[in-house]
Amino acid sequence: MKREASCSCGQLSIAADGEVVKISACHCQACQRRTGSAFGVAVFFNKKDLTISGVSNSYSRSGDSGRSIEFRFCPDCRSTVYWMPEFRRNLVAVALGCFAEPASLIPTQSVYEERRLGWVGFNLPGAG
After folding, report:
1. Which of 18, 31, 44, 83 places its Cα 20 to 30 Å from the Cα of 68?
2. Euclidean distance between CA atoms 16 and 19, whole angstroms
């Protein structure tokens, strides 16, 4: 299934022509800061299944895992569209909110639960 995602202004886009590997809701403080929300949601694809169009800037930081993560964002609108975690070199994470049609993209896992805000609740498939 082909899925398309883009930044707010549309200059930076990514097309995924392959299956989703996993969808992760992350409650770490860095994702909270990056999104300005209670959590971030990453839709992971195999790198080989992606086509990227447009210009991007990058920002690298250490993740809670201690390994680096390189974020790619639009130099015009500054939306973070995708990122590459060092510990998963064959995968690329795409921000859920950047997809044209995100409704069918349901998280399969929730990570860094110790940072989850008390009012956030999930009803994930296969959980509990």
Report:
1. 18
2. 8
d(CA 45, CA 47): 6
- Predicted TM-score (pTM) above 0.70: yes
Question: Amino acid letter at 124?
Answer: L
**pLDDT per position as a tens digit, 41-95:** 999 999 999 999 999 999 999 877 788 999 999 999 999 999 998 888 899 999 9
Helices (H), the chain: 29-35
The tokens describing 69, both together, are 């993560």
Phi and psi for 7 in degrees, rounded to 5? -75, 180
Contact 95, 30 (CB under 8 A): no
**Residue 3 CB contacts under 8 Å (≥ 6 apart), including other chains:** 15, 16, 99, 100, 101
